[in-house]
Design a protein that fits this description.
By secondary structure, the chain is of the alpha+beta class. The protein has 18 helices and 26 strands.
Amino acid sequence: MRHWFVCSLSLLCLAAPPAWAAHAYAMWGEPKLPPDFAHFPYVNPGAPKGGELRLVSDQRASTFDKYNPFTIRGSAPAYLSSLMFDTLLTGSLDETATGYGLLAEDVEVAPDGLSATFRLRPEARFHNGKPVLAQDVKYSFDTLMGPYTSPGYKTLLFEVAGVDALDDRTVRYRFKAPNRELPLTVGGLPVFSRDWGLGEDGKPKPFDQVVMDVPIGSGPYRIGPVNFGKDITYVRDPRYWARDLPVRRGSANFDRIQVKIYKDNTAKLEALKAGEFDLMRFFSAGDWARRVRGPKFDTGELIKGDFAHKLPSGFQSYVLNTRRPLLADRRVREALGLALDFEWMNRQLFYGSYQRVHGLFGNTMCETHGKPSPEETALLEPWRQSLPPAVFGPMAEPPTTDGAATLRDNLRHAQALLRQAGWEVKDGVLRNQRGEPMVLEYLESTEGRMSTVSSWMRNLGKLGIQLRFRAVDFALYQQRLQKFDFDIISLAYQGTNNPGQEFADLFGSAAADQEDSGNFPGVKNPAVDAMIRAMVSARTQAQMLLACHALDRIIAHEHYLIPQWFASTHRMVYNAWRLERPPVTPPYSPGEMWAVDMWWAK
């Protein structure tokens, strides 16, 4: 999260005002669009309303058992949050680090950066017809910070001191320290009605008991017909209060959005080929290359679309749980990574469709290369004794087998590291000085991933390491992740152009022992904590970049993660006979949500 606001960021900056007010907030520089913009440039403002979009759930859970997407336990329907809850600010898909007013008609950030004040639009309405008031914004924040929601909210909002309803239409967030990103963070929080979850006595129920109560939000859709275990339909609110706002013009075009649920990927793919739904995003290179075909593709009814984007690449990785004694040694973790032959996998399994992940911030201005600058070195210097010496050298690169080295070279390097860590091969089994074998478990929620992991398992076997593949049902998988009960898992971490406080949840020491936090590798590293603080408290973009690079170097050289791969396009199949789309793909298009929000029915 970013910090410290200066007057020059605002398009409406006055000479020495006590605060600034604007239609948008930009973290660095100025908003791209002026106050009187008519619509986002990548939408069709005249897109017709009507028709139906039939989707498949993007979640791994095979059903849902609640309507509350914010509580810890259970599974909520796919897309519910984005379709039913409006926020104070909304982002643009062709710029980063900027929020435009949605529920809020303007935002004011104090010159000292210690507060952000939002003035609500008088026309904003919840689904029950009541106005959206400052008291509802405060209630939503207080509820999300309460005991029944994901601890990620507490970490994300750690630097928010509180929120005050100054009057019915004015709400002020107070910050513990200047933080340039916090206005965007609080501006992006869901806002829901105080009437959601009222009991028969008219009093609010504890939030963990708000389960099947239909959410009362202010978004463009409501819950319509539901077939539990099969599908849910969202219906467009014809009286949606923001339908004519510039930030909403050309969006929410479908009258109905049906989200179908299938028990497994095979059933889902066959249903797509049979025309049971209109749009599906693909993450499997094998499916995309070999199984996305059939009569409906031959006739042009179904189209394979590769949509280029400029989104951060993310850092999809194998996560090594350092809470486990076998994975506590950095040298062991590095050795495991040396046994992964990405180039072979990309040729044989992925049809050459992926690129290797490099660090935490790929495809963003934070991406790290080469040796640390003198300024980065100065930032890292207080932690030199506790960090690997390699942190102060070139940025870590994933091992390759593309000619500069071979798999045999990498395995020899891994053997040397394991010997240094006290492990030797005896009778074909890697054992420590106590004679204990190196046996690890890879935890998954689907058998289908076995083919991807098998080559890594074989290579580890050459080192005397046994990696067992354990597939469990998704409910148990979630439970074990919440309790950090695993050795190795695979996670697709989302990238960001604006890294900040969320990294305290991913890698901060305080989150390491907090059940259901995002710190899956169990990182407890004071140098990491210091870099996150520096990133969050940066007063300039240059300071933020220094801290990002320093953090990236530490995480990479500590080998908490084994980098996997990413695709630079959104791979989607869509029904060209039923759907139309704008001619321009916005550079920061979020996959299928671009279609949900901005495509329309023929």
